[in-house]
Amino acid sequence: MSHMKSSASAFSGSTRVVTPAGNVAGSLRLPGDKSISHRYAMLAGFAEGISHLTNFSSGADPHSTLACMQQLGAGVERGENGVFTVTGCAGSFQAPQAALDCGNSGSTMRMLAGLLAAQPFTSTLVGDTSLSRRPMERIRMPLTAMGAKLDLTEGHAPVTIHGGPLRGLDYRTPIASAQVKTCLLFAGLQASGTTQVHESVHTRDHGELALRAFGAEVERSKLTVSIQGGQKLHGIDASVPGDLSSAAFFLCAAALFPESNLVLDGVGMNPTRASLLDVLRGLGVRLNVLELSEQHAELVGTLQVLGNPGGLQGAEISGALSAQLIDELPVLAAIAPYTRDGIRIRDARELRVKESDRIALVAQNLRAMGAQVEEFEDGLDVPGGQTLHGAGIDAGDDHRIAMAFAVAALRAVGDTQIHGAESAAISFPEFFEFLDRITER
Q1: 186 or 82, which is more confident?
Q2: pLDDT over threshold 70, residue 13
Q3: Is the CB of residue 368 less than 8 Å from the CB of residue 393?
């Protein structure tokens, strides 16, 4: 297998050049899942005793969470092979001396607010420019109903939390959001009585599984999750499964080539995340799960992807599926021109308030590469059977846009420049190195 020459991916400042590939093959082990890393870090910092977290995410976001836990009094030490040892606060954080910096991480800000709402002090959560534009009213409303007081700036960060005694809440989330659900379960853990969260669609359940792993009882029936206040958490030893949202980029890269053969080891296969695999199978990608095991109720498997000599069909993604695939939609849209029937995305308005307006940026960058695309308020229509050419891509400070278009570039005619490529480090610093490793040119 020929490795890509370093000149093919030369940096000039923060621009990365991606040259077209002939095939995708090889094997990778991905960094730990971002969603699980966040939750384990928070609960380890909050629990009683010591936790050892192996294969913790290498992305910047979960490290923002670890830094916040340190500011709140948890002990955080990085050991050999990136194993983190976290000494918890046994349910009582120390009042932070300064604002808690969440960086680019909406997960940190929204979920940590739930843990802080019951603590008897005032704390302020701040973030970078992108995070400061993201909606925070969705946590303020329910936390206020539980008895906390939150100050926002026009619905956005900085978020100042005046914590105190909370009471349980029966809440129906107006927007499907695993972060909001987890925030309320974290607050409910410390409230009097029971907290119930009713969802319109089943969002990813890493929060519930993490709470159980640390010793809490969490009940779920259909679309309702409930937690009893006053439960104690205890430290755990856990290995974080590989990140399926990161795997998505390589799965889609392999999907573009009829002869591809790629193996991804130790990937998180949580059923609330695995809809991506169903969509890829529907497109005609051949996927095999080679082995499957369970770690702290999270499924972990080895995935093999084989290209389809007959090419890719098309897909329609809407309703509950859009909420479940929210992080994977940019890369699916980016490979849509190469399918036969195109990909249609609806009910994904939430993409407009992510790290960037992902609907607008995907459309803009696809057009830059010569694709036809129709933009809607809540989605996109990307017709199939198109030929793309290399172009200058604007990542818009958004890690998923940078990575999605690096994948689209593999089948384009001519080189593509990804401007703002360094934003990939927010979730996946090794991304370009891994992409080089599996592309044959």
Answers
A1: 186
A2: no
A3: yes
- Gap between the Cα atoms of 289 and 280, Å rounded: 13
Say yes or no: domain 6-32+241-440 is CATH 3.40.50.10190.
no
Domain boundaries, the chain: 6-32+241-440, 34-238
Q: Which helix (H) or strand (E) holds 317?
A: strand 314-317
pLDDT digits (tens, 9 = 90+) for 102-116: 999 999 999 999 999
66 half-sphere exposure, CB direction, 13 A CA radius: 23
Gap between the Cα atoms of 20 and 8, Å rounded: 10
Phi-psi region of 64 (alpha: psi -120 to 50; beta: other; left: phi over 0): alpha
Q: For residues 302 and 353, what is the distance between their CA atoms, to the nearest angstrom?
A: 33
Interacting residues of 369 by C-beta distance below 8 A, sequence separation 6+: 337, 388, 389, 390, 391, 393, 405, 408, 409, 412, 416
The total number of residues written for the chain in this structure: 441
Give the pair of three-digit tokens for residue 153: 């700036």
CB atoms within 10 A of CB 368: 17
Helix residue ranges per DSSP H, 226-305: 244-255, 275-283
Helix axes 244-255, 399-408, angle to 10 degrees: 20
How far apart are alpha carbons 387 and 257 in whole angstroms?
Answer: 14
Active site residue 327: yes
Considering the candidates 205, 327, 397, 398, report the single residue annotated as catalytic.
Answer: 327
Using CA atoms, how far apart are residues 402 and 388, in angstroms rounded to an integer?
17
Is 401:362 a contact under the CB 8 Å cutoff?
yes
What are the strands, taking DSSP E only, across 163-217?
A: 170-172, 194-198
What kind and span of H or E run contains 397? Answer: none
Spatial distance between the Cα atoms of 277 and 303, rounded to a whole number of angstroms? 10
Q: How confident is the model over 342-366, as pLDDT tens digits?
A: 999 999 999 998 888 999 999 999 9
What CATH number has the domain spanning 34-238?
A: 3.65.10.10
* Beta pairing class for 100-101 and 122-126: parallel
Task: Say yes or no: do domains 6-32+241-440 and 34-238 share a fold.
Answer: yes
Contact residues for 377 (Cβ-Cβ < 8 A; gap 6+):
349
